[in-house]
Amino acid sequence: MKLRDTLALALSALLRNKMRSLLTTLGVVIGVAAVIIMQSLGLGATERVTGEISSMGSNMLVLMPGGSHRQPFGGSFLSAPLFSERDLAAIEAECDAVRFAAASNTRSVNVIYGEKNHSTNLYGVTPEWFEIRDWGVARGRLLDRDDQSAGAKRCLIGATLVRELFGDQEPLGAEVRLHEMTCEVVGVMAGKGTSTFGMDQDDVVLMPYTTFVRRITGDDHIGMVMVSTVSEARTDEAKEQLEALMRQRRHILPGEDDDFNVRDMRELQSLMGTVTGVLTTLLASVAAISLVVGGIGIMNIMLVSVTERTREIGIRMAVGATGGDILQQFLLEAITLAALGGLLGIGFGLGVSFGLAAALDLPFAVPVTGTILAFVFALVVGVVFGVFPARKAARLRPIEALRFE
Known about the structure:
six-stranded mixed barrel; 10 strands
């Protein structure tokens, strides 16, 4: 019997029991959809994390106190000496792969405006910080070198502070009080929203570094130096230059551990991509188990179908159908059910993924490879779990099948 005729018979048999056929495919639909949803959300999360890390700065390196052997990002601050303004000047003068270098210190403060107050993070930064972070203002202006040299009592605020303290009022030109000093608001930073790590990036106050050390801490040591390289191609070179310069300036002998750490944002980006990739694969593998459950469902229904159609099988054998024809028909029925479940699962999975991505504010990503693998796995499940019922049907004896009631 031709394959086309056998396929037509298989489809005819499935269409006679449309509801049962649809319910039989439900396990495969759920399995394929679950795999696609996990893959899609994982890719979206990875894309968002890597995008946010990239947006933190252009070819950015972060110089922090503390050895890399203690902690995976920056080490311990407590025992390592901080940096100085002379270190910052040496980086700008001696590291030709470095484009900008900026000082950054931070402290938690209470910001007061009128009767309202809000706890936030205050950063003291040099003007180059804005170039490195690629962060501009929504309105007003950035802090400049005149503000830096004069130690001006001026500041920039994030969108969260505008909402919490000013509401519908205009913040530009207003004076806010923080840490026993008043500070004029000269700009509102462009909104960045909540990061993947749950931090509100707009809940921030920025002031000149000189103002910060004179008015806030009374200590001119630098807690963090942020660096942008001349180009992405020279990032590794810039990192090597920074490490060599800091070892020299901090009098670290050959063989001794560094008491500072130079972190490349690409390392964090790669790490986060690896973590989300592993979690996505793990969750997709767990979801794939439901495909096996769906296959068991197909096998059970096919066994019931063989029993119900025993007399039909006997009639077909009596008019010349071989055991191979019967095997082929029932196997095609199982594969068709699995293929139908796979196609429905793909549509359902992509639809749910799109909805969840929108709800979770993630980029919608279509896992092309994952989708293909899920569909192929569904077909394999149909073959594996369809073989036993098909063989049982093919091994029926025509006379016994015809006598079956």
